[in-house]
Amino acid sequence: MDKVSFLQEKSTFHMKYPDQSDLSFYRWYTEQHPDEAIGWYHLGREREARGEPEAALAALRQALHAKPGAYYNEAREAYQALIRKRREEDSRKRIRRVLASLLFLYSLFVISPGPLTEPAKSTASTAAQVSPPVAASRPHVEVIAVPANLYSAQLEKQVRQYVENRRPSLTQPYSVIVVPEVAGAPLFTPLLYYQPRSVLGIIRYHPVNRTILSQKWFPRPGTYEQDPLLQPARIALAQEQLVTEHILTLRNALYRYYQQKGQLPVNLSHLAGAYPGNYLSQIPAPPAALGMKSYLYRPDLFRPEAAWDSIREVVPLVGYPEPLVPMEPLQIWLSESTHTMRLMSGSQIVRSYPVGIGKDGSTPEGYYTILQKINHPRGHDNIYGTRGMVFQSSGYAIHGTNHPESIGSSVSLGCIRMYNAAVEELYSFVSLGTEVIASDAPAPALPWSNPAPFVLEARPQEETPQIVYRWLH
After folding, report:
1. Which residues does UniProt mark as catalytic (predicted)?
2. Domain 330-462, architecture per CATH
3. Whole-prediction pTM value?
4. Mind telling me the catalytic residues?
5. Which site among 163, 220, 348, 417 is 20 to 30 Å from 404 CA-CA?
6. CB-based burial label for 441 (10 Å; 0-12, 13-18, 19+)
């Protein structure tokens, strides 16, 4: 529908329903014409004007899934502008938190008349006001990359500056594993989902009394798997990464559920419904070391006006500190030029996979979302492998394959192929509604070291044995 016809529809609606608002018209129009970008675009702008950024993003995202037409390009620009605005607001919040922490430290070390001492034991009245911790604090480990051209003395000095300045809010000793520079990753910033195969050193630091408890620097990058300092740190890191991945997966699924349904589920088990409502295959269970049967879920703390930020309180990260770089909703980024797919949380790479794509540019470029998740999708000769995720209703899906040799090539009719083990992991992470961003823009192929596999067992309720799929394999 062109712009003139849309305005005529709007005028007719208001003449028939003079008491209804523009918002009512835009909602009615998108119900009547769900494939028209122009309606979703105006609905998104109206939501934005009303101070409802999350609802605005959801509407503009629908516009990007509609057929190209009037206001399609405007919808893309408005969507990107809102995303940039949200990231800028998040950055300002992080800066305020860091400044507040630094001010607190300043008050401790400068204003305080005496040396830093252990806090006094809580009185009975104070104890009554503070809730006890729900999980025992676990050893915290960070991984940071450093420039490749540092001398040993420079390296030790800069890592010491990092531990002294980067985490002022921590109160328990923690370890930092130092790795060589990782292409495409920021320096001196925690790499939350990186497995440190090659290591330069390790330092254990106490942030309260500002002392180095232990450190070791290696003459050259290596694995050093049996090193007595490094070995327990690697184990602790793997445990922390698993819990962080659990929480990220739950937060993303809840956020996408809210985007699609306008409310949070009554309990977490509703996320693991049968197809087509299978946001997740399973609800992740905490490791035994946390001493919990299930992760905390507090939907009463949810605030629609700050949907993603408040989900941090709805499903708190227990046993470990919140990451210095805050978790963000999951997105799937496809680089067609390098045959690489990355699962992202804001600027953090969660996983990186090689993929096969469509020949002759047949894999679509643009913004999409996961529409369906299918366990063991049926197709002739098991061509779709063990999992499938539809991201465009006209037959495009991310799926496994019975031809693993095709990964890394452009051979399909448009679908995205993955190794079966990789697609099972991606299927576990992402929920319905997770964004897929595909681009054919040139980009360098950057290496990444994925952590241990994260797989939630898929259920028979996620299968569709009555359907034979004809995706663009």
Report:
1. 399, 415
2. Beta Barrel (2.40)
3. 0.76
4. 399, 415
5. 348
6. exposed
